[in-house]
């Protein structure tokens, strides 16, 4: 397959327009159309439907777009591995994180990465669903998973976290600590909007769900924890034994810990095509070592 034709195709698929794709690639629309036409002749099938609004992928085009992104990633990974062989990791690493990871824990990790690899630059993005961004321009994704996602990824389980109810001591003193699931209905509830989840159905440790009406719903874990620590309500959030942020107004304590909740894995996921790139392997090692004390604290509970 001609990679220039493939890159042209992917640009049009991403932008939905020949003009926008041509501007992005820095080529003329005539050149871009010629590349797409050649690829369609080579494929013996139409890849786009031309409409007044632009272009849309056919079923065959959707299939090529999924596989084509992986081919581009694999070729870029091979070049990166060759370029970095025997050298300290350099260049740019794009990382996507879940919305609301605590900044006071990420800052020292960034410091370690900079000290170890000063020639490596990080582009850090946040997403409500990081795993969904893996086929984009992303090298590493960190996400909360109930199970390992299927697909061409290499997955590292970094830390087991518990998804449970927490509230500040001050809130519980003012409103009373609920002794049953039924009593939660009289409290202010704050709910994490997990990827693919339902924030109005909370899980039971023994299996099953129960319905709630949250006063506040957000994908931002840190925002919910700060809100709960400030005495605004009872929050259903992931907890990886991370110390509270300095701005928290009160200490969080568990609510109904033997009744409500479930286990999740904090996962680091990289496209399989990138797994052998030195800078990727180094980041995996650094993050794993950084979280080791939390894993030990968890295992000693």
User: What is the CATH-assigned architecture of the largest domain?
Assistant: 3-Layer(aba) Sandwich
**Number of β-strand runs:** 13
Number of domains: 3
Provide the succession of SSEs.
HHHEEHEHEEEHEEEEHEEEH
Proportion of residues in β-strands: 25-35%
Assigned CATH superfamily of the largest domain: Periplasmic binding protein-like II
Largest sheet: 9 strands, mixed
CATH topology of the largest domain, by name, is D-Maltodextrin-Binding Protein, domain 2
Q: How helix-rich are the residues, as a percent range?
A: 25-40%
Whole-angstrom Rg: 23 Å
Task: State the helix count.
Answer: 8
Low-confidence stretches: none
Q: Overall pLDDT, averaged?
A: 83
Ends distance: 55 Å
Shape: globular
Q: Give me the secondary-structure category.
A: alpha/beta
CATH class of the largest domain: Alpha Beta
